[in-house]
Design goal:
- This protein is of the alpha/beta class.
- It contains 13 helices and 4 strands.
- Strands 2-1-3-4 form a 4-stranded parallel beta sheet.
- α10 runs parallel beside α13.
């Protein structure tokens, strides 16, 4: 109760001082189920980061109508942002949300973008598993994927409803677009149509979790903050796709392979997904 009261008072103070607060200097844009919670927790404890009021602000997808002042309220006071110090947003839905890149570019054109990407087959299954755990999904995995395969055209266009439709329709369709969210190339390409390549850092999730020192050094160098302690990297929500049938793995792998190849070409990187 006391903690809740303190946060409510903090938020009230932030709203009153919104005009004196920074916009994000970095944005962790995704992907979902790829380790962004662990990354946000790590950055929140780094001495060179002034953490946002919360993870997953969802400004560029859900809360855009609340306005820039509301968004600024989440970040540090501008006078506290000095060389070697930064502040940012971490909302993994931004990667796949169609209008997020244009909205972000309009108010934070110089923000550095960070993307975590996980083996897309495992990410697909993890996304379904999360929906099951939260009570949003009652279909078996193979059925959900079969239906998305059979309706791939409508699943792709479902995230781009007519202008008269509410944003909520788009968000609801995206919740069940398991495969679409794992077709990384098209989402990264959309962001790169609004931001230059040198403002985008892409890290492979498996490397971050297996041997975090190198990717974390890449991250802190990219954000221009001092090196952190790789031993302090937390493993939050870490899961393994241990119950996908071999047939489903092959099917998903075959479907996603050309998307992976396009991603490597687009970024000039190699990913060691089987």
């Amino acid at each position: 109760m006391l903690q809740r009261t303190r946060r409510a008072l903090d938020w009230r103070a932030r709203r009153l001082t919104a005009g004196m607060r920074s916009l994000p200097l970095f944005i962790v844009i995704g992907g979902q189920r790829c380790g962004t919670t662990s990354l946000f927790d790590y950055l929140s404890t780094h001495p060179g980061v002034r953490p946002a009021f919360r993870k997953e602000i969802h400004y560029f997808d859900i809360h855009f109508d609340r306005g820039e002042s509301w968004y600024r309220s989440h970040f540090a006071l501008t006078h506290s942002i000095k060389p070697g110090v930064t502040t940012g947003d971490a909302t993994p839905n931004y990667l796949v949300y169609p209008t997020a890149p244009e909205r972000a570019r309009a108010i934070a054109p110089n923000a550095k973008l960070v993307v975590l990407l996980r083996d897309p087959v495992e990410r697909t299954h993890s996304s379904w598993r999360l929906n099951r755990r939260q009570g949003w999904e009652n279909r078996p995995f193979d059925q959900a994927i079969d239906e998305e395969f059979s309706q791939m055209e409508s699943a792709t266009t479902a995230v781009e409803p007519p202008p008269t439709d509410r944003e909520g329709i788009r968000r609801e369709k995206l919740r069940y677009a398991y495969l679409l969210k794992s077709q990384y190339a098209e989402h990264v390409e959309r962001w790169l149509s609004f931001y230059p390549r040198d403002q985008l850092l892409v890290l492979q999730s498996e490397h971050l979790f297996s041997n975090p020192e190198k990717p974390l050094n890449q991250l802190t160098e990219f954000l221009e903050i001092g090196k952190g302690d790789p031993n302090a990297f937390p493993r939050v929500n870490e899961t393994a796709a241990d119950d996908i049938s071999e047939a489903s793995k092959r099917r998903l792998g075959e479907h996603l392979q050309p998307h992976n190849e396009r991603l490597e070409e687009l970024l000039g990187m190699e990913f060691d997904w089987a």
